[in-house]
Please model this.
Amino acid sequence: QVQLVESGGGLVQAGGSLRLSCAASGRTFSNYAMGWFRQAPGKEREFVARISWSGGSTYYADSMKGRFTISRDNAKNTVYLQMNSLKPEDTAVYYCAAAASLQVVPRRYDYWGQGTQVTVSS
Model:
């Protein structure tokens, strides 16, 4: 089992920045690829970004490229999502997830955090 706990969400004005963190415990963190997803009210869960086990490979959804950066610190068992130039349409609950392989589909992830709310005001 892997337990994931997100933090860092909040209310920010459009154009602002937030840094989300996801702390992992349980099984060896570096054995898992990590991903960030988000879900807005009434919408399906959406892929945001994913990172490989060592952090050497990252991949982003098109709408996040150039604005969001995913990173990880295996010594701290933590994955981050730096979000810049935030827009009102970025408002959602953001989730981190762990998978045994590199994935962009939610159902391929084995473990999920409880989510953290990000609200971007216009």
Observations:
- The mean pLDDT is 96.
- Residues 16 and 85 are 5 Å apart (CA to CA).
- The chain is about 0% helix and 50% strand.
